[in-house]
From TrEMBL:
<feature type="domain" description="PDZ">
    <location>
        <begin position="136"/>
        <end position="192"/>
    </location>
</feature>
<dbReference type="GO" id="GO:0004252">
    <property type="term" value="F:serine-type endopeptidase activity"/>
</dbReference>
<dbReference type="InterPro" id="IPR036034">
    <property type="entry name" value="PDZ_sf"/>
</dbReference>
<dbReference type="InterPro" id="IPR020568">
    <property type="entry name" value="Ribosomal_Su5_D2-typ_SF"/>
</dbReference>
<feature type="active site">
    <location>
        <position position="238"/>
    </location>
</feature>
<dbReference type="Pfam" id="PF05362">
    <property type="entry name" value="Lon_C"/>
</dbReference>
<comment type="similarity">
    <text>Belongs to the peptidase S16 family.</text>
</comment>
<protein>
    <recommendedName>
        <fullName>endopeptidase La</fullName>
        <ecNumber>3.4.21.53</ecNumber>
    </recommendedName>
</protein>
<dbReference type="InterPro" id="IPR001478">
    <property type="entry name" value="PDZ"/>
</dbReference>
<dbReference type="Pfam" id="PF13180">
    <property type="entry name" value="PDZ_2"/>
</dbReference>
<dbReference type="GO" id="GO:0005524">
    <property type="term" value="F:ATP binding"/>
</dbReference>
<keyword id="KW-0645">Protease</keyword>
<keyword id="KW-0720">Serine protease</keyword>
<dbReference type="GO" id="GO:0004176">
    <property type="term" value="F:ATP-dependent peptidase activity"/>
</dbReference>
<dbReference type="GO" id="GO:0030163">
    <property type="term" value="P:protein catabolic process"/>
</dbReference>
<feature type="domain" description="Lon proteolytic">
    <location>
        <begin position="233"/>
        <end position="331"/>
    </location>
</feature>
<dbReference type="GO" id="GO:0006508">
    <property type="term" value="P:proteolysis"/>
</dbReference>
Amino acid sequence: MNRRILTLIVALVPIMAFGVLLSVVRVPFVSLGPGPTFDTLGQIDGKDVVAIEGAEVYPTSGQLNMTTVAQRDGLTLGQALTLWMSGREQLVPRDLVYPPDKSREEIEQANTRDFRQSEDSAEYAALSYLDYPMAVTVDSVEESGPSAGKLRDGDAIDAVDGRPVANLDEFQAVLQETKPGDTIVIDYRRKNAPPGAVAVTLGENPDREHGYLGIGVLDAPWAPFEITFNLANVGGPSAGMVFSLAVIDKLTEGDLAGSRVVAGSGTITGDGQVGSIGGITHKMAAAADAGATVFLVPAENCVEAKSAQRDGMELVRVETLDDAVTALNTLSAGGEPPRC
């Protein structure tokens, strides 16, 4: 064999081996980067992202964008290196995203639960901001429990056996006087429907001696109309604040976004407290790609957000839902909102 050809083959072997390593070997890292954004004032698949049925909805302009972080798992060595070199992606140990003591299905189910909880909290925070009255509200109904087919999520319970119940303590006090097998009559209000009454025969539960209704209840602001969030396959709780803003914008005159593209991220509690989130620098990059000029930042994330601030994007600091609404109205009036 020609010596020159032999030298070439010897030189190519490690290059080819390295190429195989790049394309075949999986690395124990997950890539985090900018994910898709969704305008909560707009539509997705022909439906309003935030749909309100049974109440007057006011016209809006501009955008209120929720932001997400994209995750890529199962990376090869070559893919990981390419993503890292792009400067837009962050590589983190896989165990931080997918703990080894939980299956991927368990993690995805937990993320979905967090997202659904954020939707409920967003509704309660918005209704509280709008001064809707509190009520004993059905949060969940056990599928095979005594109340299945009789009460629904979102019902407001007004009385039990003719005794008014204005809050959770009063409701529980009445139930504690019952026993399994008793039949009680519950007066309720249902969204987009007339008030009603239903008789429920109480069941047994090993955790309590009194009768069991098979529902979860909480004190929450209640409105007679329905709010639906039509956004699936987005996990985690960080959309809460922006969802609340969209509800408020649609139910009030005026325009929170002021024809601007506003983005943000933040958890929300039922009483309107805005909490910190992860991946804010990636979310800011996604917002910038979507044309946002304002980003609503949870106060606890301000230091990290400032480290990645982009030209043309104002970072507005928020601690509560009221802060966020006030800041947007201040911007629309040409004023100076709190900044990071």
